Amino acid sequence: MNLRSESIKTNRRVNQKAGRKTQPGIRIFQLILAILATLFALYPVWFILLAALRPGSTLYTLDLLGMFIPTQFSLENFKAILFQEPFLMWMRNSLFVAGFTTVACLLISTSSAYAFSRMRFFGRDFGLVLLLAIQSFPGVLSLIPIAQLITALGLYKEYWGLILAYTSGTLVFCTLNLKGYFDTIPIDLEEAGMIDGCGPFQSFLLIALPLARPAIAVTALFGFMAGWGEYVLASVILPAPSNIQTVMVGMYQMANSRSVPWGTFAAGAVLIIIPVLIVFLYLQRFLAGGLTLGGVKG
Amino acid sequence: MPSYLLYEGKEHMQRIHGWRKFLYVLAFIGPTILGILVFSVYPIIYNTYISFTNRNVFHANPDCSAGLNSIIEPTCWPVFKEHALSGMGSLFQIQMPLFKNYITLLGTIFTPIILLALLRVLLCFIPLLIASLVNRHYRKEYIPPVSRSVVTLIGVALTVILFLVGSPAESATLTQTGVPPYKALLLDGPTALGLVTNSGDFFIVVFRTVLYVICCIPLFFIIGLILALLLNVKNLPGRSFFRVALIVPWAASNVAIMMSLVWKFFFQEVGTVNQMTKLLFNAPPVLWLNDPTIAFAVCVLANIWYSYPFFMVTILGALQSIPTELYEASEVDGAGWWQQLFQITLPLIRPAVIPIIVLSSITTFQMFGTVYAITGGGPSLGAGVPGITDFVMVYAYKQVLQSSNYGLMGAFAVIIFIMLFIATILSLRITRITKGAEG
Questions:
Q1: Which residue on chain A is closest to B373 by alpha carbon?
Q2: pLDDT in tens, B174-184
Q3: Could B73 and A148 be called an inter-chain contact, meaning their C-beta atoms sit closer than 8 Å?
Q4: Does the residue A196 lie in any domain?
Q5: Which residues between 297 and 356 in chain B have a beta carbon less than 8 angstroms from any beta carbon of chain A?
Q6: Rounded to an integer, what is the distance from CA B107 to the centroid of its chain?
Q7: Beta-bridge mates of residue B167
Q8: In a mutagenesis test of the B interface, which of A33, A60, A136 is the best target, namely the one with the most B β-carbons within 10 Å?
Q9: Is there a domain that residue A144 lies in?
Q10: Residues of chain A with pLDDT under 70
Q11: A224, B101, B174, B291 - which has most CB atoms within 10 Å?
């Protein structure tokens, strides 16, 4: 990953040297295009922010200006979502479920990622392909069996049931991401360790794992966000009452209830989306650099 | 190299033999395999089993005295007996004929007329196949050499012509008895396609989903390409701001359900679009999402919003790895901007773009949250018929949770899984995501 960003940097330097003057007409066209695209990209997020800050439990404003810039300001909607709805409960449930999912998934998948990257065993490459292909069975279609299984284990309407289902769902993603990173770590250190008498467990725990810390952090955050935004399984395993729901299910039901408090909804949406935005925008350079596409080197 | 080495790499690394090696490997990958077996492989087996039963809202509970049931149904196991389902409804059982659910789903596809109509539609694609074959093998042998795009264009044109010609009016008479089935071959493309898609829920659902993918992917690519080219302009003012701002939708796709509800709100009766048209043109409110075409288009639009940043970022990365010398050299040779785009940029970003197109096609095919939150599968075309945006996953979710058609959806899941399994295996060969450390 480092090598790659280095090469991009040098490339950039070269490119800047070669930069030529652009004609003003073309420059204006470029800017207009960029601004239009930015409006398209940001408006939905900007819109809920405006709606959340508007007083009254309604999104309906009939002044054109109010649709683009904040004309009024009130925290009424935030008060409503925090104290009149079980929103804090939902957040707690989601944090609990997504957090434990991430921990469980990492505990299990780091070792298998290490094995798939380093070890030589029968059916390794084929096994990885098979894992991915099996994983391609979409969650929506395995709803019935998974719900059945969770019920049999007595975990229906329990957080642990959802955690179990999520963990197995993100296993392959975590394994693949971490494997991609282990692949980029030179094996020499472990080799040296083995000459000094390390066994496989020691060289995994003491040498490879500390080196993979950045990848583990990033994988953890992506795993967390996957659990945070999931809806289908959560709606089946934790359907009711409203105080055990996760935040996505709660908000979805709120948006589809008979008289929707849209302003309150918008405030909740802001509280959910802003942390995700910040974390993601911080992480996206890892995404572009090597995680999802790390395995796609020719 | 001897196969008993535990590690990839050089000869002198740890040699571990036989059973010990097996135990080591098992210790490392065992938990993952177990998780996959229980929560991914078992559901597939269970689904296959369910697809042969008449399980639905009336026959909801397993009959634990039946042989196969007591094995495959976890609530029948003595350990889990206390959590067994107890409710109204009688027991479900394996039904005869065995493939009844599959037949219900695939409808009349196995009658000669429909099969021939399907053949009629597939025949249209032969010119395209020939064109790609010519492009791959024979193009260079012609004198003078033919351009790749000319061959492709001819192929597309012939396909369209083949699709449109034929006798249209016979579809009504065709389904009656006594008409020789070969007449289906003489139909025009749209009528034949109509016959196929009307033969059962499965085909219409898959057809619309594929149509959705075909609408989405080129738009992802074009918008992603334009914005990547824009961000690649070195001295664009505010470039780093635009780069971050344009990625925001990707971040929002982590909570797709939430943002899709906002998209839904834009197009509601009292939503933003109607407010704007009222303010600007004093137009009466329109129920946008009740119009089939617009509902479909809104789903495409929202999906573009989520997905173009992925394309943009990938293409931008590929653009930045193209050596500038190529452009400089071509400029010396007098190449214009378009020529550079088609002769240098597009061929060089191809290796980066093909994998994401494949991956995106598969995820778009499985799109659930966005579509479900915006239209809920609607607008409806009548009772018992899939709605316009009832794409594969939306349809399955609604059938399971709203209609409790478990047996039928088991069959549906099996067929879709076979399709996705093949697509995934093929795509992995293209994207090479599973290459080992030595690759």
A1: A252
A2: 555 556 666 66
A3: yes
A4: yes
A5: 305, 309, 313-314, 316-317, 320-321, 323-324, 328, 351-352, 355-356
A6: 22
A7: B187
A8: A136
A9: yes
A10: 1-22, 56-64, 260, 284-298
A11: B101
Return the CATH number at A112.
1.10.3720.10
| Number of domains chain A contains | 1
Question: What value of ipTM does the predicted structure carry?
Answer: 0.79
The token pair at A57 is 């439990």
Euclidean distance between CA atoms B82 and A146, whole angstroms? 18
Q: Does B96 touch chain A (CB under 8 A)?
A: no
Tell me the three state secondary structure of residue B131. Answer: helix
Per the listing, tokens 């701002």 go with B245
C-alpha B36/C-alpha B211 separation (Å) is 32
Query: What is the tens place of the pLDDT at every residue in B362-417?
Result: 889 988 888 988 888 778 777 777 888 888 888 888 888 887 788 888 888 888 88
User: Shortest CB distance from A229 goes to which of B14, B257, B262?
Assistant: B257
Report the residue of chain B nearest A189, measured CA to CA.
Answer: B13
Rounded Cα gap, residues B321 and B310, in angstroms: 17
Q: Taking the model in full, what pTM does it have?
A: 0.82
Residue of A233, A257, A255 whose CA lies nearest to A245: A233
- Among residues B250, B251, B289, which one has the least CA distance to residue B267? B289
Q: Which of B1, B8, B12, B14 is the best mutation test for A, with the most CBs of A within 10 A?
A: B14
Q: Is the peptide bond before A241 cis (omega within 30 degrees of 0)?
A: yes
Unique residue bearing structure tokens 């039904």: B95
Domain architecture of chain B: domains with CATH: 18-98 (no CATH), 99-199 (no CATH), 201-439 (1.10.3720.10)
DSSP assignment of A34-81 equals HHHHHHHHHHHHHHHHHHHHSSSS------TGGGTS--S---HHHHHH
